[in-house]
């Protein structure tokens, strides 16, 4: 574990890591809170699915676009403006009693103004540590990221069940503003200038690894959103008396997060082989399939803890793949596409789970999660020939210069 202790000796690493996690934390909360908030307001999960779907469309547009804008306008202006606007929209949704179509439009704007924290920080990481320590840093980031994608819903369920979904949305907005301000004020943001990409918007998708990372991230995170909604629904309808989202669901989700943290710290920094991503996805798939056997709290907690061992290592693999294959001037946009895939995956998974819960109760949502992971595994298996073999190599972006052919006549 000393490899992670070495990271803390580099100035700014700990501050950047914690502040960006705080700024991103709301997006682990929002899908569950919006699912519950809209269900309470309109009486069905399908309406919530519509709202989450419009949010995902906004995020699909926002991710790569806002990331590219950072190269032209700078990180601080783009991050600052989007954080303020997005938090304000969440507060409006929390308190306003409006028709469903208006709420859906506001959710679209929430997605459109999503702060591009993920592409910003993953573009900064190569400037914070030497190349040999970049893989452990991505691994630590991926392990800590579980506080967002898995522990975030635990906080969302607790706040919403104890104080209401309006309070939950306000807490999410508060995290966004405070975490965003802390991250934006980091000295490293002022010292690293993102060079505008010389190629047109979307040209980064010519890298097969960017498409692979985006698609895998979409299905991977969508599966988490689906199973989280299923777990909340399972214990909400079990007669435990806690209303929407009991503390039992929080225990199960916390165990899921714990498995990911352990897996990330123990295995996430290992050298990446072309088959590593598939293996890590399959570990999570095995745990999710086992969750279909029983909705008993301890069974779910155990199998999801074991499945979670592959979660953070898979996220670390995605980051390593992009960093090792994409030029530095294009990494912000590349991570923008990857981040969009994950954020859209959250909303899409929650939306599909909402419909599945209405049709087949909690097991329907868990089945959706397993199906999404199966598609993810199939895609990862079919993509192995394009993934880099990083055994014995440092993780660093390829040089900006390319081969130039000079005619002899």
Q: What's the average pLDDT?
A: 82
CATH homologous group name? MFS general substrate transporter like domains
N-to-C series of helices and strands: HHHHHHHHHHHHHHHHH
Q: What's the number of structural domains? A: 1
Distance between the termini: 59 Å
**What do we call the CATH topology?**
Growth Hormone, Chain: A
User: Biggest sheet, open or closed, and with what strands and sense?
Assistant: none
Name the CATH class. Mainly Alpha
Q: What is the count of helical runs? A: 17
Tell me the CATH architecture.
Up-down Bundle
Judged by helices, strands and strand pairing, the structural class is mainly alpha
Task: Tell me what portion of residues adopts beta-strand conformation.
Answer: under 5%
- Over the alpha carbons, how many angstroms does the gyration radius reach? 20 Å
Instruction: List how many beta strands DSSP finds.
Output: 0
């Amino acid at each position: 574990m000393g490899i992670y202790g070495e990271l803390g000796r580099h100035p700014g690493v700990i501050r950047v890591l914690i502040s960006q996690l705080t700024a991103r934390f709301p997006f682990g909360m929002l899908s569950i809170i919006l699912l519950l908030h809209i269900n309470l307001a309109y009486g069905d999960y399908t309406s919530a699915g519509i709202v989450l779907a419009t949010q995902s469309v906004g995020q699909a547009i926002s991710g790569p676009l806002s990331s590219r804008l950072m190269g032209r306008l700078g990180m601080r202006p783009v991050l600052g403006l989007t954080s303020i606007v997005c938090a304000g929209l969440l507060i409006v949704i929390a308190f306003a009693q409006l028709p469903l179509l208006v709420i859906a439009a506001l959710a679209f704007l929430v997605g459109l103004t999503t702060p591009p924290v993920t592409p910003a920080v993953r573009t900064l990481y190569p400037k914070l540590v030497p190349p040999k320590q970049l893989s452990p840093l991505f691994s630590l980031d991926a392990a800590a990221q579980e506080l967002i994608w898995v522990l975030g819903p635990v906080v969302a369920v607790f706040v919403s069940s104890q104080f209401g979904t309006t309070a939950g949305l306000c807490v999410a907005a508060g995290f966004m503003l405070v975490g965003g301000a802390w991250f934006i004020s980091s000295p490293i943001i002022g010292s690293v200038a993102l060079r505008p990409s010389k190629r047109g918007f979307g040209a980064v998708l010519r890298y097969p690894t960017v498409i692979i990372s985006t698609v895998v991230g979409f299905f991977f995170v969508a599966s988490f959103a689906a199973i989280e909604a299923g777990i909340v629904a399972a214990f909400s309808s079990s007669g435990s008396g806690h209303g929407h989202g009991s503390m039992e669901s929080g225990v199960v989700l916390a165990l899921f997060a714990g498995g990911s943290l352990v897996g990330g710290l123990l295995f996430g920094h290992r050298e990446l082989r072309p088959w590593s991503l598939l293996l890590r996805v399959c570990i999570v798939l095995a745990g999710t399939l086992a969750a279909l056997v029983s909705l008993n709290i301890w069974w779910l907690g155990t199998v999801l803890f074991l499945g979670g061992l592959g979660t953070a290592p898979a996220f670390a693999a995605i980051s390593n793949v992009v960093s090792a294959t994409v030029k530095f001037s294009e990494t912000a946009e590349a991570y923008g596409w990857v981040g969009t895939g994950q954020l859209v995956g959250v909303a899409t998974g929650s939306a599909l789970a909402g419909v599945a819960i209405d049709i087949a109760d909690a097991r329907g949502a868990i089945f959706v999660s397993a199906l999404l992971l199966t598609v993810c595994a199939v895609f990862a298996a079919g993509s192995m020939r394009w993934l880099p073999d990083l055994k014995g190599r440092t993780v660093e972006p390829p040089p900006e210069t390319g081969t130039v052919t000079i005619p002899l006549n």
